[in-house]
């Protein structure tokens, strides 16, 4: 019989705890901009890719429309984005950056970037951890896909 893996030895629990700490870290870093971590992720995608449909944005950030819609409504209320129906296809809801969002992009990047320095990792170490987490993610996706086929 296989011995159970105790909670403090579980990789998933370490990642879960790290995720919680990251969220807290980012909530403090983003506080001056009145952005949550999830809103920040959405803003990063929009700053990088420009105008997207809600569906495209959801695919980029891994959120379904039920989670994404309230988040977008808050961003719109705060003046970061505008949601507008496409003239080409009324079913398509476009998400567009406001002038405020465009103007504050650099300030947000610089502020959050300087916070990353506080973590105390060398660039190479940061890149290595990121690559390992991405590799783990791919293994998990493959295992999940294999389980669905059974």
UniProtKB/TrEMBL annotation:
Residues 8-145 form the HTH marR-type domain. The keyword DNA-binding applies. It is found in: Cytoplasm. The keyword Glycosyltransferase does not apply. Keywords: DNA-binding, Transcription, Transcription regulation. PROSITE patterns: HTH_MARR_2. It comes from the Bacteria. Pfam families: Staph_reg_Sar_Rot. Belongs to the SarZ family. This is HTH-type transcriptional regulator SarZ.
């Amino acid at each position: 019989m296989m011995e159970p893996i105790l909670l403090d030895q579980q990789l998933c629990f370490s990642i879960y705890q790290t995720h919680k700490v990251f969220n807290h870290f980012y909530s403090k870093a983003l506080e001056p901009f009145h952005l949550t971590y999830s809103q920040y992720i959405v803003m990063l995608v929009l700053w990088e890719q420009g105008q997207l449909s809600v569906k495209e944005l959801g695919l980029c950030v891994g959120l379904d429309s039920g989670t994404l819609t309230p988040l977008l409504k808050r961003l719109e209320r705060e003046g970061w984005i505008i949601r507008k129906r496409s003239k080409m296809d009324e079913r398509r809801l476009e998400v567009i950056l406001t002038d405020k969002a465009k103007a504050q992009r650099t300030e947000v990047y610089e502020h959050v970037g300087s916070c990353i320095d506080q973590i105390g990792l060398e660039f190479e170490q940061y890149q290595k951890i990121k690559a390992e987490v991405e590799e783990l993610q791919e293994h998990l996706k493959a295992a999940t896909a294999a389980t669905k086929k059974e």
